[in-house]
Structure formats: C-alpha cells, structure tokens
Design a protein that fits this description.
Length: 293
C-alpha cells in the first residue's frame, strides 16, 4: 500500500474507486488499523460513486509510531478525567485531525466527506471543528462528544479495554475475539472467523500497544467538544447502536443534539462494531448524506 509524508509523519493509506468520484475519508478508532474498514465495505461505497480513502492513524499499523514520546500513565489520566483535572498527553485528537488533513493535502483533495468510527468519529468531529473548509459532510459512528456527563462504559467493556496488552500473535487474536464478544452487537451474528482474520492481519501489519495507550490518553486529554460542535454547519449523520456497551447510546444522542441539523440513525441490536448485516443501511445513509452536498 502507498504512504505519504503528512503533518510531520508518514501515513499509510489505500484508495478504492475512481479518483474522480466524491472523495470520502474513513477514520478508524482506538488502536484500530485501516483494515477494520472492511475492503468489501469500502468497495460498496466506491460503487456508489465515492473515491474512498482508508488510512492508518498515527501510532497504529504502518503509519508512524511515535515511540519517542513515551508511554503515558493511563491510570493517572483516567483519575484526572474523573476528577475533572487536566490530562497530560503526548498529542491530542486535533493533532490526529491535522494528520487527516495532511493526507488530503498530499492527495490533492480540497474537501472530503468524512466518516469516523469510535475514536475515529471523535477525530472526524475535531476535523469539522478545526478545519471546517475541508469537510463536505460528517458521519460520526458509535462515537461521542467527550461530554463528561455522559454515562460510562459497562464494567465488562471497560475491563477489556484496559486489560494488559497481549504479548504474542496468538494472544492478540484471542484477545480480539474476547473484546468483540464483549463489546460487539448482541442483535447480530458474531462472525468469529472474520474477527480472527482481521486480528491476525492487524498483528502482522504492526503491533503497537504503546501507541494505543497514547491514543487513549489523547481522547481523555481532548475533553468535551460539545460547545464547539454547535458551530458545525456541514450536513451530519450520527450512527449509534442502541446496545453499545462501550460508548453508550446516550453518547450518540448527545452528539446529534450538539450539531445543528444532525440526523441520528439509531440501530437496534448494534453494539460497538459494524456487523455486515447493517452495511446496506449504513451505506445507504452515508451515500444519501453525501448526495445532499
């Protein structure tokens, strides 16, 4: 896959569809590589006339690992968050949004339809706030404004999120199965072979648990976007599962309420993943939003 120099780092990316199509940038979540945007999902979006770009965020996959920044104390960061104290972080979500803009610059794309999942939705929100002229539409999937008043993850979901990192390929695959059984969609079939395949592919592309910690602390340190989102004026879609144990449904409602004119697509049975059964509904909604712009 190709890569580019952008915002002082190297970003690995992949494109689907005609470069003359409507540009659509897909941003993945915490510790998740671009391959979690399934290639068939990307191809189906491309078939709707989109020029789809997926990429590895900083500190995951084949993009630059910022190991020289050290490993933050995540327990201290969580404690500071709970007591409403400032959190020290090597970088913030707005820096990750600047990475995405740097990628668009390198690809000579002036504006794009921006789609983010989980932490990727937070980065997409930050992009719409910090770089509004670069965003045609915003889709925020299973994400949050960072509002500290929102309900927390379930204890089980928080436990798998904060578990010690695996130390081998086999452990990484088993951990992924445990994670997605815990946070995934209870209303849809659990595709264990696919989860194992993605986990193996991700491990083989790049294993960087310290990078995941830096990303998590970036989320905590970036605080609430609620007030800033009130100024967002691009057509916006918020997608959230009613059965999400990691980022509860209230976070999706809060995101939609914060952004003027945003549409909330609530999906019963959906947890903190995107099972294939919801792809048609999701692709229809994203494409309809893009058509408005």
């Amino acid at each position: 896959m190709p890569n580019v120099a952008a915002n002082g780092i190297t970003i690995e990316y992949e494109e689907f569809g005609d470069r003359g199509g409507r540009p659509m940038l897909l941003i993945m979540g915490l510790g998740a590589q671009m391959v979690l945007w399934h290639e068939d999902f990307c191809k189906q979006l491309a078939a709707r006339g989109h020029h789809v770009i997926r990429f590895d965020n900083r500190d995951v996959g084949k993009s630059t690992s910022l190991d020289h920044l050290g490993v933050p104390n995540v327990v201290a960061a969580l404690g500071a968050t709970l007591t409403r104290q400032p959190v020290k972080a090597p970088y913030l979500l707005r820096d990750m949004a600047a990475d995405a803009v740097g990628l668009l610059d390198a690809l000579r794309i002036d504006k794009a339809h921006v789609v983010g999942a989980s932490m990727g939705g937070m980065i997409a929100q930050a992009l719409a706030i910090e770089f509004p002229s670069r965003v045609l539409t915003l889709t925020s999937i299973m994400s949050s404004t960072g509002n500290p008043e929102l309900p927390p993850a379930t204890p089980a979901a928080m436990s798998v999120l904060l578990a010690p990192p695996p130390t081998s390929r086999d452990e990484a695959i088993e951990r992924s199965v445990t994670v997605f059984r815990t946070i995934g969609s209870p209303g849809f079939e659990f595709d264990e072979p696919e989860v194992r395949r993605r986990a193996a592919l991700s491990f083989d592309r790049g294993f960087n648990p310290a990078g995941t910690v830096r990303q998590l602390v970036a989320v905590l340190a970036s605080g609430s976007r609620t007030e800033a989102l009130k100024a967002v004026r691009v057509p916006t879609l918020v997608v959230h599962g009613k059965d999400d144990p990691l980022v509860p449904f209230a976070a999706g409602q809060d995101t939609a309420a914060a952004i003027p004119g945003a549409r909330l697509l609530a999906i019963a049975g959906m947890g903190h993943d995107m099972p294939k059964a919801i792809w048609p509904q999701l692709i229809d909604a994203i494409s309809a939003l893009a058509a408005r712009a």
